[in-house]
Amino acid sequence: MRTDYQLRQTVWKDWLWGGENLRASPDPMAASYYISRMGFQPHAYSGLETGSRNVVRHVVRQNRIIFVLVSPLNPGNEEMGRHLITHGDGVKDIAFSVEDLDAIVKKAKERGAKIVKDIWEENDEGGKVRFAQVQTYGDTTHTFVERGTYNGLFLPGYKRPLVPVDNITKTLPDPKLDFVDHIVGNQPDLEMEDAAAWYEKHLIFHRFWSVDDTQIHTEYSALRSIVVTNWEETIKMPINEPAPGRRKSQIQEFVDYYGGAGVQHIALNTKDIISAIRHLRSRGMEFLSVPNSYYDQLKEKLKLSKVKVVEDMNVLQELNILVDYDDNGYLLQIFTKNVQDRPTVFLEVIQRNNHSGFGAGNFKALFEAIEIDQAARGNL
Ligand SMILES: [Fe+2]
């Protein structure tokens, strides 16, 4: 069924960051991390200097990927402070660029979505932007952004960064990450169905792909996953829940530390994952490691496969990049370690070669790699 509106590519996300960036630094630590380690560039800023009295927002950008890192400026800030105490650093909001905000909000309301903030407008010299915000799983929200003909730097109220060019970006190679491929939400036990159904009911998404715990399990833990997507299939939102195993599922570990449902990982698409991971490793980014036995098995299995991986398998192994495939194509993917102290959010880098899956064939290898770290944390 064709929907009567369009939800296009995810274009920005609000991230929370707290603690040490409360000091008056022009380029605080979280933004600096994404710039130096991940190859983002300073893009826009909103804070005391621009008239924002309650929160500061550092916007970092890499091609079509935009993260907005937000922290409270004042003691006792309700919205940001409470989220930060409960969840630690995490993804508070995932925003979608939309073409017909009125139609989306009307439909969401008719179908009973919780509206966090009804349609509002913001203006500056670049023009007008319209927004609305709805509640999805846990404390996570979606903001719909209708830009119209707005031609400012980012959104109304934002100015150029206080430090427009970080000197470190002049000397480090560009990882060339292009766009958000998918964003995964972890749910508590038995809440996956409801979370997936929320997207079907309120945003007219449909199911794209799913796996159950008979397909994704190790000796110790298991998960189930449903991927929902918009009509155009430009937004992919896998929804996970833990499944019973001999020990604690990694999904349950996330839920325990995050304090409920929330975003587990953001996958960033690139056309050249080998160069991207070489460059990210040279920047000191840390990734999960994969046992050599994974590559031994993979090389044997690929001999029997119709698909030919053009990348050098020895280079993929050296960089710990995972491969999943079917008869028509393959994907290459790798997962970072957690990007904050709590074992919650991490990032993925992915390259697709005519393959639209999510690496089900790699979940076991990924699980086993995560479980090594989970055991080291005393949580397995
Ligand atoms: Fe993923």
TrEMBL record:
Binding site for Fe cation: 182, 265, 348
Stretches assigned to the VOC domain: 16-147, 179-337
SUPFAM superfamilies documented for this protein: Glyoxalase/Bleomycin resistance protein/Dihydroxybiphenyl dioxygenase
Membrane-protein topology: Peripheral membrane protein
GO MF annotation terms: 4-hydroxyphenylpyruvate dioxygenase activity; metal ion binding; protein homodimerization activity
Compartments where found: Cytoplasm; Endoplasmic reticulum membrane; Golgi apparatus membrane
Pathway stated in the Swiss-Prot or TrEMBL entry: Amino-acid degradation; L-phenylalanine degradation; acetoacetate and fumarate from L-phenylalanine: step 3/6
Catalytic activity entry: 3-(4-hydroxyphenyl)pyruvate + O2 = homogentisate + CO2
One CC-aspect GO term: Golgi membrane
Note accompanying the cofactor annotation: Binds 1 Fe cation per subunit.
Keywords, in A-Z order: Cytoplasm, Dioxygenase, Endoplasmic reticulum, Golgi apparatus, Iron, Membrane, Metal-binding, Oxidoreductase, Phenylalanine catabolism, Repeat, Tyrosine catabolism
Single Gene Ontology BP annotation: L-phenylalanine catabolic process
Cofactor(s), by name: Fe cation
Oligomeric form and interacting partners: Homodimer.
Function: Catalyzes the conversion of 4-hydroxyphenylpyruvic acid to homogentisic acid, one of the steps in tyrosine catabolism.
Family under the similarity heading: Belongs to the 4HPPD family.
Protein name: 4-hydroxyphenylpyruvate dioxygenase
Organism whose genome encodes this protein: Petrolisthes cinctipes (Flat porcelain crab)
